[in-house]
Fold this protein.
Amino acid sequence: MGPFNQPYLALIDGVVSQAQSLGMSVIIDAHQYGRRRQNGVVHIIGQSSAVTAQHYAHMWRWLANRYKRRPLIYGLCNEPHDQDKTVLVNVQNAAIAAIRAAGSRQLVLASGSAWSGANSWVSSGNAQAMLGIRDPANNYAFDVHQYLDSTNSGTSATCVAKPGCRLDAFTPWARQNRKRGFLGEFGGGPNSGCNVEVEELLSHIRNPIGVKVG
């Protein structure tokens, strides 16, 4: 609930201003895996009295007040994992409500648990839990990530064949429930085999009967 670090905030301002001058948008992404380190202790946001949903909502409301007229997208939570999905939904809903209360109507990106993996969207339980996300402005999308190696983690330079199929769990769910998807992270190793598989993934996204992206 304290003040923002002003030198760091100035760096964000500079990036946003440059993007605006180029006709681009910036995603401000809370890149913390659903966690916050406080006095050396890692707390899952919303599951600890040290870092509550109210603390998190306060941060997002402050940011929304500062950037509500700038070319910005709000990425609420990068790759949350190993946490209560109901709490995660409630934390993100509180952040969305705070952003809208500040008068900001920009796109908001919500994330599922289990690292928000597209391939595991159904098996992880995100398909059911994330239907609880609520946005008064109805301008949100689900940020999913998909890497093309055998563990879906991006830790290997070797890609597996037909990775576009890994979006098959998320795409029908989004289409059926009239939700938007945003493929916020994807990639493969620096080699010709992975180049083929990245193109396969992008072809899946371009498919006109697929999920509406972005």
Q: What stands out?
A: Confidence is low (pLDDT under 50) at residues 210-214.
